[in-house]
Design goal:
The chain is of the alpha/beta class. It has eleven helices and 16 strands. The protein has an eight-stranded parallel beta barrel. Helix 4 packs parallel to helix 5 and helix 6 runs parallel beside helix 7. The N and C termini lie far apart (74 Å). 46% of the residues are buried.
Length: 480
Amino acid sequence: MSLGSISLLFALLLRAFGLAASKATPPPLPVLPLPTYSQLKWQQREMIMFHHFGVNTFTDSEWGTGHENPSVFNPTGLDTRQWVEVAAKSGFSLAILTAKHHDGFCLWPSRYTDHSVERSNWRYGKGDVVREFTDAAKERGIDVGLYLSPWDRHEKRYGRDVAYNEFYLGQLQELFTRYGRVHEVWFDGAKGANAPNITYYFSSWFSMVEELQSTINIFSDAGPDVRWVGNEMGYSGNTSWSTINRTSLRIGDASLVNYLNTGDPSGTDWVPPECDVSIRKGWFWHKSESPKPLSQLLDIYYKSVGRNCVMLLNVPPNTTGLISESDVQRLGEFHRAIDSIFSVNLATESAVKASSIRGGKNGDFVTANVLDDDHLWTFWAPEVNKNNRHWVELRGEFRFNVVRIQEAIGLGQRIKKHQVFADGRLLARGTTVGYKRLHRLDQVVHCQSLKIKIEESKGLPLISSVGLHFDPFWESKHGT
């Protein structure tokens, strides 16, 4: 037998026993734009804590005048370790502090103003809330963010473009060189109707921040990394694209709130939405207010995290300098509720099939990927077909009232329209999915088949995770 015949016979034997070497099928091309590494990490946090704290806390105000006597600021029991401990135990990995609100009072000893903790009686004028906060967060493993209000009602240079922008950049430099790594910076366009006319040099501010903190996410109405959702109720639109056209955005332009709320399927920039809301009615602590009920916090969660957003929950410290016990208790209830609903995927042991599988059943994009623990980089991908109708189906014995769907957004946001069926009956329909889509149903569903149909998408749909969950809090309100 010739050498060529022996080689052919050996190859046939390998193929017969499934041992022949095969070339892997690569993933489909990404659908641009794509998130950065920092944006992906931000999205996976799902919830971020916000702390509004300053002279307003002591004057029972929301917007200070800028004329407050710094001596009113005197949190005699301030303990930022308590703040970050509450954040950590409540499931938050990042907390943002209002280093300066519209009143201009600085929670650090800024060299550029006389309106700061240095002029207060707290810590005999030697204190630094930003320092205590960032040190406590680092010690507990919580990442930090800072908010520096562009509107400063105390600063006399406000209204003079160059002078004020230089002043503001000076304060940015202080914050981003003194306190270590900062993961998010918050800019907004809030400004009173009678405030002096001024042009904010946002491009200069953003460039300075990126120079000093290379991996930071910058939040504003127009990004560049994270955008405002368009309201302060914590709700995103039913359609929620991470993509948007930044050239269409202007910070502080109220006419754009609907566009901010939904995003743009044709957007050329990846700028996902952040949903800001306070645990109380106000943003600063007020003795007369109490935290929102658990049912309302859960509703916000479903309409923010469950609609491809990150939930930014404000928890204001009180006049003592602590997070109030009523807020601590409510946060604990909220965290336990989220954990009890989503810690178990009722579909884990189900059989999964699909309309098709890219690369076949022995490839990298098999249906089992939707049930593993990686909700980002392992995914089911279908083959290209003529009608662009794709589906994935779970089979088992199911009892649930929440359906979770997640896309592999590392390769772009794709799904435009989808439907969910139980034993052939339509349960829910929706548009976008993105990082996470939660369908909370009005009834508890018992079924043996759960099918997700992708009706329309940009390129091939890539589903990274599917989950079925039971929400007892929703059931107790709506029955079975």
